[in-house]
From TrEMBL:
Name of the protein: Germin-like protein
Keyword Protease included in the entry's annotation: no
UniProt keyword Manganese present: yes
Signal peptide annotation: 1-19
Annotated localization: Secreted, Extracellular space, Apoplast
Family stated for the protein in its record: Belongs to the germin family.
Disulfide pairings: 23-38
Amino acid sequence: MLHILFLFSLILTSTHVLAQDFCVANLDGVLTPSGYACKPESKVASDDFVFSGLGMPGNTSNIILAAVSPAFSAQYPAVNGLSISAARLDLAPGGVIPMHTHPAATELLYVVHGRITAGFISSSNAVYVKTLTRGDIMVFPQGLLHFQISSSKRPSLAIVTFNSPLPGLQILDFALFANDLPSSLVEKTTFLDDAQVKKLKGVLGGTG
């Protein structure tokens, strides 16, 4: 009986030493692939676990008529290390979140109001598209190209969640046309002609 109690005590002690309830990000530190270093627990307050940044609409007066308001570890330090984050998605009529990927996370989208046509492309190039309305959710598996488009004459709102505090983002259009990759290489790899590539680079701020 004594050896059982000793073993149980040892397990509890080891768990207490190794377990960490949270790791509120120290944003003054360096961001690493595994996240930020932890703020000392003595400096953690209740306010660190609350984020109000998703309560206001984002500014959709831009080229894509859309806005994403993130609650990732850089904006919401409490999610650092907790395998979760969120964002607010505002779409004006005609708004679009272009084809993009999140290399480090699966995304779950919940429509608060409006209509959003959303979809993704699998690694075998199968296409999955659905028009979502209030209360619908849709999942976009990690790393796959996906998009969201407004299908409403009124603004649409969605809340998205990720299974990572740092989901990562690469937007296909910007990756191709918003940098200095030579136009000749873009043309070879996309089968677009020179005029189309130059036009898209001009719209998105690319050079070369």
